[in-house]
Amino acid sequence: MNFNDKLIIAVDFDGTIVEDAYPKVGKPMLFAFETLKKLQEEGHRLILWTYRSGDTLNEAVKFCEDNGIFFYAVNRSFPEEEYKTDRSRKIHADLFIDDRNIGGFIGWGKVYQILIGHEDMPNIDTYKKKKSLLDFFK
Questions:
Q1: Residue at 15 is within a domain
Q2: Which residue in 5, 20, 34, 124 has its CB near the most CB atoms, within 10 A?
Q3: Residue 105: inside a domain, yes or no?
């Protein structure tokens, strides 16, 4: 990795980690678990940030754990955080990986390339230098 900061990365489940089959668990997206494992190996904190709750949330968490991903927190900013109605449900994260982004989900290959990169590929440092959201699509 070409940057020193460890990131807090919020990741959606349906349509992002797995194909959207809600309320069932869809098939894993290509390179999803490989990329998430690499991000964890690099020291980044992963938060599962999903619409799911109750049994469907438990199924998603177990599916990820069965595939080697253990989240720092689930639907919260940190493990000990308690949901209270007097606070926003928005969580603190440096990045959000979600299929509902403008332009849709870019795919795990591109996520890997941006966040982890290789010597001959652009990485997060390249993207940090962009001046506008539109620069990401050039």
A1: yes
A2: 124
A3: yes
The enclosing domain of 44 has a CATH number of 3.40.50.1000
Strands (E), 12-121: 45-48, 73-74, 95-97
Residue 83 within a domain: yes
Whether 117 shows a pLDDT value over 70: the answer reads: yes
Q: What is the pLDDT of residues 42-95, one digit of tens each?
A: 999 999 999 999 999 999 999 999 999 999 999 998 888 777 766 667 888 999
Q: How many domains does the chain have?
A: 1
Query: Which residue shows structure tokens 């001959």?
Result: 120
Handedness of CA 114, 117, 120, 125 (dihedral sign): positive
Q: What is the pTM of this model?
A: 0.79
**What is the chain's alpha carbon radius of gyration, rounded to the nearest angstrom?**
15
Position 83 scores a pLDDT of 72
Q: For residue 13, what are the domain limits? A: 8-137
Compute how many other C-beta atoms are within 10 angstroms of the C-beta atom of residue 60.
23
Q: Is 3 a member of any domain?
A: no
3-state secondary structure of 109: helix
